[in-house]
C-alpha cells in the first residue's frame, strides 16, 4: 500500500534536521532550508512543508527545491512506513478476560505514592505474578483493547539495577488511561508520568492521561490526533525541571486544540503532580488544574504590559536641519533611516553633514556621541577630507589656484589639526583594506564589526554608505534583492538590540533612471526587493534642485514615528556650498562647531544654531 501522509511524520522529520520550526497556518516553516541552508546570505523562513498536502518548497530562486514530503524523506534518508506497514509493526497482545488480581506489593507501593486501591483497580494496575516487585501499567486503546504494557521496578536502585521502566517489546505507543475516559470532550489533562495521571484521578479529576515515554517520543500523537483535537481544551501538567515545563512545547506544535498549562507557582516548588499530591494533598492538585492558564507564546506581549512612552522624550540625534527635524522628530535611537538618491545627487554629502552635526551633540548623560562609518564608495582620506571641510567652514579654508589656474579650497593646517584632535576617539571608519579570509563573508564581517564598535567603542550612530557595496556574494537579481532585504532586516535588529541610530544609503532602481524629469523619486523606486522601505523607519531622498544652482531637495517619504511627509513641492530645500561642502537651510546663519569654540563638544541647541521645537503631529 502507498504511504498515507501523517502530520506526526512531518514533525519527526523536522526534528532530525535540528532546524528551528514554527507553524504558520497549515505550513510548517523552517528557519533554514535543509537543502540550501539559506545560501550565502543565510536567508531565513524560505522553506516550508504543507501539513495537509505534504508539498514542500524553498522560495530562494537559486535553490527553488520543491516536491512532495515523500521525496523530501528520500533525499534525507528519513524512513517512512505505509499504513499497512504501521499496522503490522505492533505486536498483538492477549486480551484479558477479567480484571487483574491486585497484589499486595503493588498496593503498598502505590499507597506510598498516594494512590489508593480504588484508583489502582480502575486503571487495572497490578504486579507481575512471577516478579512481585515489578509494577504493571496496562495501556488500552479507545476501543478498550490492551495494546501495550509498561513495567516499573518498584525497588529500583540507581547505579545497581539496569533499568527502571520498560515496555513490552513491539507494542503500540499510546496514552495511558484511555479506558477511563468518561466520553466527554470538555477537557483532558495530559501528564508526563503514569503516576501523575493516577494522582489526578485520586484527586477526583477525570480524563487525566499520561504520555507513554515522557519527552522521549511522540509517535503516539498520530494515532490519537483526530480524537484529541475534538476536546474543548487540553491542560498540560508536565514535569517542571530546569525552569520550564516538559511536554508543553512539543504538544503546542502537534495539537490544534486550545491548550492551558499549569502555572509554575502551583507546582509549589515540587517537580510533578505526584509529588504535589504526596506533600500537599488532592486539593492542591485541584487548584493547580483550575488555575491553569494559556501558555505564553514567545515573542508576544500583552499590550497593557507595554511601558507607556512620551515620544518627545525618546533619545534622538538631530540632523541639524530644522525643517527635517520638525517633521521626523530627529533621528531616533533604535531606528533605521534610509537615504536614497541618484548618483551625484548629494546623498553622501547629506550623510556627511548629518555626521558633522551629530559630532556636536551629547547623549542624555552628557557624553559626546560615538560614530561609526562604512564608506563603500569613498577612500578613507576622501571621506575625511569631505567631513573636515564641512566642519571647518569658509573662514578656515584658503583659496588657491591649482595647476590648471582654477581656484580651489585648501584647509588650513592648524584648523585640520584642531578638528582632528576634537573628534579623535569619537568617529571610526571601517577598514576595508583588510580582505576577508577564505570562507568569510564580507557582509557578515561588516555587521559583526558594527556590533563590536557598538559594544567596545560605545558608538551610537552608525552610517553605512551604501547598501550595494555592503553586500557580498549576490548573483542573480533575485538573489541581490533577497540579500538586500535580509541585510536591512539584520541592520534593523542591531538598531533595536543596542538602541542605536543607523543611517543607510541606497541607490534607486535602475528602472527609475531616465524618467526622473517626469516625476520625483518615491518609495517604490528605491533599489531592492520592495520590502526594504517597509523595514526601515525613515526614508529620505536627496536630489539636486533643477531650478536653483548649488541647491538640493530633501524628500521625507516615510516617517514611522510621526507620519509627517514632505515630498514634491513640499520637499525641504537646502543650499550647498562647493567650497565648504556644507549643506544648510537658506535662512541658516553661520554654523560654528565645537572644535572652533575650543570645547570638546557643545550643547545641542548651540550646535544646531536654532531653538528645537516640539514636533507638531499631522493629525
Helix-strand blueprint:
Elements lengths: L6 H11 L3 E4 L2 E4 L16 E4 L4 E4 L7 E3 H7 L7 H7 L14 H9 L4 H7 L2 E2 L6 E7 L5 E8 L11 E3 L19 E5 L2 H9 L5 E3 L9 H9 L4 E5 L2 E2 L2 E2 L2 H7 L4 E3 L11 H8 L1 H9 L25 E2 L4 H7 L2 E2 L3 E5 L6 H13 L10 E6 L4 H13 L4 E5 L5 E5 L1 H11 L3 E3 L12 H16 L1 E7 L1 H4 L6 H22 L2 E6 L25 H4 L2 E7 L6 E9 L12 E5 L6 E2 L9 H4 L6 H5 L11
Parallel strand pairs: 10-11, 10-12, 12-15, 18-24, 18-25, 19-22, 19-23, 23-24
Antiparallel strand pairs: 1-2, 2-3, 3-4, 4-5, 6-7, 7-8, 8-9, 13-14, 16-17, 20-21, 25-26, 26-27, 27-28
Could you walk me through the main structural features you see in this protein, from its secondary elements to its overall organization?
The structure is a single chain. With 619 residues, this protein is an alpha/beta fold. Helix content is 29%, strand content 20%. It has a nine-stranded mixed β-sheet with strand order 22-19-23-24-18-25-26-27-28, sandwiched between helices. Strands 1-2-3-4-5 form a five-stranded antiparallel β-sheet. A four-stranded antiparallel β-sheet has the order 6-7-8-9. The two termini are 66 Å apart.
Amino acid at each position: 500500500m502507498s504511504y498515507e501522509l501523517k502530520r506526526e511524520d512531518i514533525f519527526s522529520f523536522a526534528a532530525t534536521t535540528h532546524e528551528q520550526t514554527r507553524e504558520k497556518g497549515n505550513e510548517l516553516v523552517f528557519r533554514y532550508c535543509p537543502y540550501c541552508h539559506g545560501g550565502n546570505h543565510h536567508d531565513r523562513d524560505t522553506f516550508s512543508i504543507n501539513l495537509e498536502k505534504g508539498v514542500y518548497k524553498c522560495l530562494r530562486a537559486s535553490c527553488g527545491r520543491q516536491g512532495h514530503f515523500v521525496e523530501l524523506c528520500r533525499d534525507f534518508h528519513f524512513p517512512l512506513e505505509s499504513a499497512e506497514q504501521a499496522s503490522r509493526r505492533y505486536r498483538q497482545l492477549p486480551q484479558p478476560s477479567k480484571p487483574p488480581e491486585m497484589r499486595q506489593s503493588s498496593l503498598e507501593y502505590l499507597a506510598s505514592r498516594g494512590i489508593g486501591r480504588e484508583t489502582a483497580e480502575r486503571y487495572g494496575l497490578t504486579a507481575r505474578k512471577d516478579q512481585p516487585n515489578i509494577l504493571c501499567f496496562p495501556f488500552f486503546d479507545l476501543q478498550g483493547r490492551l495494546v501495550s504494557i509498561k513495567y516499573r521496578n518498584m525497588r529500583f536502585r540507581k547505579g545497581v539495577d539496569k533499568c527502571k521502566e520498560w515496555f513490552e517489546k513491539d507494542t503500540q505507543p499510546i496514552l495511558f488511561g484511555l479506558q477511563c475516559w468518561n466520553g466527554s470532550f470538555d477537557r483532558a489533562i495530559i501528564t508526563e508520568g503514569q503516576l501523575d495521571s493516577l494522582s489526578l484521578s485520586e484527586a477526583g479529576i477525570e480524563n487525566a492521561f499520561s504520555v507513554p515515554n515522557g519527552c522521549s517520543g511522540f509517535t503516539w500523537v498520530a494515532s490519537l490526533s483526530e480524537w484529541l483535537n475534538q476536546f474543548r481544551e487540553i491542560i498540560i501538567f508536565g514535569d517542571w525541571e530546569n525552569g520550564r515545563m516538559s511536554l508543553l512545547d512539543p504538544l503546542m506544535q502537534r495539537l490544534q486544540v486550545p491548550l492551558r498549562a499549569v502555572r509554575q507557582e502551583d507546582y509549589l516548588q515540587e517537580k510533578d503532580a505526584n509529588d504535589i499530591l504526596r506533600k500537599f494533598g488532592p486539593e492542591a492538585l485541584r487548584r493547580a488544574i483550575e488555575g491553569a492558564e494559556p501558555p505564553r507564546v514567545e515573542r508576544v506581549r500583552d499590550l497593557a504590559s507595554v511601558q507607556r512612552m512620551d515620544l518627545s522624550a525618546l533619545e534622538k540625534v538631530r540632523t541639524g536641519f530644522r525643517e527635517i527635524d520638525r517633521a521626523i522628530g530627529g533621528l531616533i535611537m533604535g531606528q533605521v533611516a534610509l537615504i536614497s538618491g541618484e548618483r551625484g545627487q548629494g546623498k553622501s554629502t547629506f550623510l556627511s553633514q548629518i555626521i558633522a552635526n551629530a559630532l556636536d551633540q551629547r547623549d542624555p548623560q552628557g557624553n559626546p556621541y560615538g560614530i561609526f562609518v562604512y564608506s563603500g564608495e569613498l577612500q578613507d582620506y576622501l571621506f575625511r577630507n569631505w567631513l573636515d571641510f564641512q566642519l571647518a567652514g569658509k573662514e578656515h579654508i584658503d583659496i588657491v589656484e591649482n595647476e590648471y589656474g582654477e581656484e580651489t579650497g585648501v584647509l588650513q593646517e592648524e584648523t585640520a589639526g584642531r578638528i582632528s584632535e576634537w573628534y579623535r576617539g569619537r568617529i571610526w571608519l571601517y577598514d576595508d583594506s583588510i580582505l576577508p579570509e577564505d570562507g568569510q563573508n564580507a557582509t557578515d564581517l561588516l555587521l559583526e564589526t558594527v556590533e563590536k564598535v557598538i559594544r567596545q567603542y560605545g558608538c551610537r550612530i552608525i552610517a553605512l554608505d551604501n547598501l550595494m557595496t555592503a553586500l557580498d556574494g549576490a548573483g542573480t537579481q533575485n538573489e541581490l534583492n533577497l540579500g538586500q532585504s535580509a541585510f536591512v532586516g539584520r541592520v534593523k535588529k542591531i538598531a533595536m538590540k543596542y538602541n542605536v541610530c543607523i543611517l543607510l544609503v541606497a541607490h534607486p532602481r535602475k528602472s527609475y533612471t531616465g524618467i526622473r524629469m517626469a516625476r520625483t523619486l518615491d518609495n517604490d523606486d528605491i533599489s531592492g526587493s520592495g520590502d526594504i522601505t517597509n523595514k526601515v523607519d525613515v526614508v529620505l531622498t536627496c536630489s539636486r534642485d533643477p531650478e536653483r544652482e548649488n541647491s538640493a531637495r530633501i524628500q521625507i517619504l516615510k516617517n514611522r514615528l510621526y507620519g509627517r511627509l514632505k515630498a514634491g513641492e513640499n520637499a525641504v530645500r537646502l543650499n550647498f556650498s562647493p567650497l565648504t561642502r556644507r549643506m544648510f537651510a537658506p535662512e541658516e546663519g553661520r554654523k560654528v562647531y565645537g572644535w572652533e569654540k575650543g570645547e570638546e563638544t557643545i550643547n545641542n541647541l548651540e550646535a544646531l544654531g536654532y531653538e528645537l521645537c516640539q514636533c507638531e503631529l499631522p493629525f
